[in-house]
Design goal:
This protein is mostly helical. It contains 15 helices and 2 strands. It has one domain: Farnesyl Diphosphate Synthase, CATH 1.10.600. Helix 9 packs antiparallel against helix 10 and helix 14 packs antiparallel against helix 15. The longest helix is centred in the last third of the chain and has 28 residues. The N terminus is likely disordered. Bound molecules: geranylgeranyl diphosphate. Geranylgeranyl diphosphate (GRG) binds next to helix 5, helix 9 and helix 10.
Length: 310
């Protein structure tokens, strides 16, 4: 797909290509036990927004203006790897031992449609398969780039990123006898959110930078952009929990307040959180200045993240 100023066209086309690549790469029998394959497919193909893969493709496209460089094709394996990790996190987050949710992406959660053991294994299968995919030559012909991507994704998804952030989140809800703290400061919430959800969005932007062969300046700009939209995404999510319609959001709402959870909305109030969201999107757009019109798709993505209804 050649770069186009019609950024929403790029996004729509990217989404279709991501969906078909996810479908193609999802492990199938006989390589994968049939029930495991079915549960992985059930969750991945349930119609997520594909924000993280779209960010990988859009970031790669923004930095590489070679007309022969097809970002949507060349960055597709890494884009799908991050979606597999994201989907695993949703499956595990919905389990009775975590959030105990019945609905995700508008349909029964994996443990409800199958059972707890299958949901745990489907999540584990997606997590590990993501790294299998990243390590393949299709991800990049250059082994050093593949190793760099594996390292970056391990860190974004792991102990100092999503998994660590989830642990801090559960601890803040007072789930554990040790390390519990219900009184998070604004700074604590920002760190927790940057780890739990921001790290994967930031990885998506950084992966696009590497695959698009960004200069150091471009890579730093995309990292700043990724950091800002990571924060914006979580504030938008906190606002959806307060103001969203569960039928549109595709999952239960009102859960944060019911659990007495510290979020940017509980700390700053709805108006304060909206003002912060606005500042973050403006900061994200500022970061894209070096790209000129080539950053248009990323601007659209940032606005979508802030304004989304689901
Ligand atoms: C279980 C290790 C582990 C981590 C879970 C990310 C996460 C940590 C849990 C997800 C719970 C949650 C609802 C977090 C809020 C932000 C979020 C990730 C929302 C869902 O992401 P979207 O909106 O979903 O990109 P779709 O379905 O469109 O892909």
């Amino acid at each position: 797909m050649a770069r186009t100023d019609l950024s929403s066209h790029f996004i729509e086309e990217a989404r279709v290509r991501v969906d078909s690549a996810l479908d193609r790469w999802l492990p199938k029998p006989p390589a994968c036990p049939p029930l495991l394959s079915e549960a992985m497919r059930y969750s991945v193909m349930a119609g997520g927004k594909r924000l993280r893969p779209i960010l990988v493709l859009s970031a790669a496209d923004a930095v590489n203006d070679d007309p022969h460089y097809d970002a949507a094709a060349l960055a597709l394996p890494a884009a799908c790897a991050v979606e597999f990790i994201h989907t695993y996190s949703l499956i595990h987050d919905d389990l009775p031992a975590m959030d105990n949710d019945d609905l995700r992406r508008g349909r029964p959660t994996v443990h409800r449609a199958f059972d707890d053991a299958t949901a745990i294994l489907a999540g584990d299968g997606l997590l590990t398969f993501a790294f299998d995919l990243l390590s393949r030559p299709e991800t990049s012909a250059d082994p050093a780039i593949r190793v760099e991507l594996v390292k970056m994704l391990s860190r974004a998804a792991g102990i100092g990123g999503m998994v660590g952030g989830q642990m801090l989140d559960l601890a803040a809800e007072g789930r554990f006898a040790q390390g519990a703290s219900n009184k998070l400061t604004e700074r604590d919430v920002a760190v927790l959110q940057a780890m739990k959800t921001g790290a994967l969005l930031r990885f998506a932007c950084n992966a696009g930078a590497i695959l698009g062969q960004a200069s150091d300046n471009e890579a730093a700009a995309l990292d700043r952009f990724g950091d800002a939209i990571g924060q914006a995404f979580q504030i938008a999510d906190d606002l959806l929990d307060v103001e969203g319609d569960s039928a549109v959001v595709g999952k239960a709402t009102g859960k944060d307040a019911a659990a007495g959870k510290a979020t940017m909305v509980s700390i700053l109030g709805v108006a304060g959180a909206k003002a912060r969201l606005h500042e973050l999107v403006a900061g994200a757009e500022d970061a894209l200045a070096p790209f000129g019109t080539a950053g248009t798709t990323l601007v659209t993505a940032a606005r979508f993240i802030a304004d989304r209804r689901s």
